[in-house]
Amino acid sequence: MGESIEATLTSLAGDGATGALRAGRAGTVYLHQGRVCHVECQGTPSVEELLTASGRISANGVRTTRQSAVGDGGDILVRRGVLTKGELQLCVLGATLDASFFLFGLAGPKLRFRDGDRHWLGTHWYFDVPALLLECRRRRARLDRAWPSAELDAKPVRPVRRIGSKHVVLSATQWEVLLAADDESTPAELAKRIGLSAYATLVAVRELAAADLLIRPEPEPLPRPVQKPPQKEAPEPEPAASLPRRAERSGLRPGMGPQQPRPITPQTTGDPTDVNLLIRLRDALEALQ
Amino acid sequence: MIGIEDCLFEAMSIPGALGAILVDHASGTAVATRGQPDPERSASGLSEAFRATQVGLALSSPSGTVRIDDMIITTDQSYQLIKTMETPFDGPLLICVRLDLARANLGLARHRLQSISRQLIAS
């Protein structure tokens, strides 16, 4: 595993680099003279998708502009009256913050820096690297304030069929999320479909969960069990008097500690508690013979 | 046609303006700012004030739905003028201007803010 995206970006910023930092297939960070000017992430709506979803331009229109652009695609769109300069800046800014939040949290993508690479839209907004990292942290805290559990972040959004009270107040984003929810799409998929940022969609999903408007996979969340991070190799079984509690079901493990970077796709890891139990069971059976 | 920085520059040229900030409401992000000492805190505070007002008014309005165009809050020190701007891409933006109690003309300030937001976003 290479360096983290954050560390690499910080050193590129120090060098005043211009180019594109590719994080495997997960996304790309574009830098201009040491400042971030555009970020793309596979899981969040791109500027192209936002433009298309807004109805301002067709997918085909975006493609033709992209092909004919030489690092000035944004200016072409503004000249053609597709959107104003302010709208273009806001669109780039929004997409970049959204992509950064999800991309920087990923662990272990292969990083490759291509010097001089530019985004087809050109440069329309700048972020200082420390400020961008700070903003990502602030967003994570904001998300946890809405509802401090990640258990629904990557699961299909399933609204409850009947609410527990007579009325409910929804924000415009929450309304769109509920309307688009089909019991199968995850928040990230819904975001792409309705053309909202993945972050705003996730905030809405957490707020809906906090208001008891979504079906949860478990009837009640555990009262903060002490969990160890999953380990590659099973450690030696400890001669503890009591068995460690098995934390929910194996597979996707929600709430793996708020500091841990959370991938947007479900993780499939073996539950170390289960492995420990199996090893102890085997040892006990061997001792019986 | 203006960009984000020009928009704040224009907002600060409103008579009596002490500070201006552009906030992304959905995330509480301070997009750009002028004359605000702690942009991050201002952004989350203003965004929260807007949210609370929206929910409160929705509950108290006969139809149950409200669309806030702008909010004027008079404090002992200043006016806070908060205007919403719908964007074609994401949730609304808030443009917030802090105005001097003695020097500002609220009618003029609202009018100017309206024209600024129309120049920034076409819809």
TrEMBL record, chain A:
Chain intervals for the UniProt region annotation (Disordered): 216-275
Name recorded for this polypeptide: MarR family transcriptional regulator
Annotated organism of origin: Acrocarpospora phusangensis
TrEMBL record, chain B:
Protein name as it appears in the record: Uncharacterized protein
Top-level taxon of origin: Bacteria
Lineage: Bacteria, Bacillati, Actinomycetota, Actinomycetes, Streptosporangiales
Species in which this protein is naturally found: Acrocarpospora phusangensis
